Amino acid sequence: MSDETNKWPDKIIVGLTGNIATGKSAIMKIAAEQGALTLDADKVVHSIMNNDRALQRAIIEAFGNEVAAEDGHINRSALAKIVFNNPEKLARLEGLIHPTVRQEIHKYISLNDAKVVMIEAIKLLEGTLKDDCQQIWVAHCDRQRQLDRLLICRGMDQETAEMRLNAQSAQEEKVAQADVVIDTGGTMAQTKEQVLAAWHNLLNPPAPEAEPAAPEVEIVTRRARRSDVPGVLLHMHKASGGKVKKSRTDLLMELAERSFFIGQEGSEITTVIGWNIDSGIARVDQLYIHPAGALHTTGAATLESIEKSANEHFCELIIVFPPNDVDPAVRQWLLDAGYVVRHPSALHRVWLRAVEDSQPDDTFIMLKILRDIRIKS
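Structure (tokenized):
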């Protein structure tokens, strides 16, 4: 957020973005019903391209007379053909348009009395409009739902729809920068419920407290199911700061080889732990816990569920393989849970064999003995 928002000290500016056919219009409609001023940056672009003579001349000068309509306006179809799939020309066009669009949006905000303003822009995060926003909301749904909407609701053919989807950046990149993510993959009622909850939090931010309040939401731990794959992928991406970019196929293949336990606070996944059991030894080789506070809520509960399952399978011990650059808070969390750091040279040969068979690169060993059934001489 920049100093620009000081122009409107009594207003809350929300930026809404998301890829094509992810339900942004539905969110805007709900926000408008709650009294927000809703501004569609794309419509503002169309308006200024139709009415701003100086901008029209600049575009024609930059891209040639072929983009000029007979009445002197811009032939948007011809212009789109020139800039589509040409990043350099698209950037040149955006450089001409975006400053004027931002000025126009500022004018609308200043002239309206609405307390909340929602600005929809598909490239919100790539431009300067995001600097005007106190919160960033991202609309999200799975690719198949996007495709269905383009084919059924917008009447596109399959090839065009696929081309439009492939031309955009990954949804996860936007989700990773969001303050609020609205999952529009369900029913309209479910979407509205999420928007109204976010709206309530927007107008009623929690008061600062000396001590964090105990979570009121229910904490649930369970084994991941195939239906959890999109949520698990999003959480892995967010928890790793965008470093982990697995595909749906990758995760489904992993589910065939190992188990994933997930921890939820309400409906939100905040912990994902990947593990397996072989020859009486449990191995944890994937830890995705986000935000950091979840270590002591869903993180602790999920680790406890894994230990319970390992005991039920009569495991001797649990080996955890944290990455060498693990957050010190995660290391301390494991120490507090009874796990100790061990060098391979200090391991019994059976346990050492288990480590050699399964330790990922760039990790170290922490273990917790559940029952020591080795025969002692």
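The radius of gyration is 26 Å. The first strand starts at residue 12 and ends at 17.
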